[in-house]
């Protein structure tokens, strides 16, 4: 199965937790149906990306990276690359590359969707990243490292997150904590909006 086919199958089957997330899911599926190349970065103005929020076994800490270009804290993630065959595989590859962790236990079911505009992904083009976000647990006490993508990689307590973290990240963290705890995802904890994230200049191209 190709990456495009896998992404389309995964997003067609995914159960959205909110109406705003369902609107994004529908947009992603329509994009893939219209664009056979829709998973690749040369597909403009829109293409899929994938990322991973890394949590510890307790769900009380998240591993974030201070992105070198955006100079803000984000989960790990980025573009699909040749050789990728599944959307979950893209998310896992990006997380391992950018965190320096030796392994991760990735939940293959998407956790959250986020569309954001990136002004410096392709010179002179306003690009939309259609991001599919997953959750993964890190091995206990596994060492992490800073990659060339980041200025810093750091564990953060969920009750003391960095300032300026976008609403969509708080939603993703709430979903991740629910999954780690094995309880249903609480829609009341998610923002009612969330069809797209913050200003274009703040979003990494990765």
Task: Summarize the structure in short.
This protein is an alpha+beta fold and 206 residues long.
Helix content range of the residues, please? 25-40%
CA radius of gyration: 16 Å
The outline comes out as globular
Range of strand content: 25-35%
Structural class: alpha+beta
> Helical segment tally?
4
First and last CA, distance: 25 Å
Oligomer: single chain
Series of secondary-structure elements, N-terminal to C-terminal: HHEEEEHEEEH
Q: Let me know the number of strands.
A: 7
The whole-number mean of residue pLDDT values reads 88
Largest sheet features: 7 strands, mixed
Question: Low-confidence segments, ≥5 residues, pLDDT <50?
Answer: 198-206
Description:
- The chain is of the alpha+beta class and 206 residues long.
- The chain is built from 4 helices and 7 strands, in the order ααββββαβββα.
- It is globular, with a radius of gyration of 16 Å.
- Mean pLDDT is 88; it is low at 198-206.
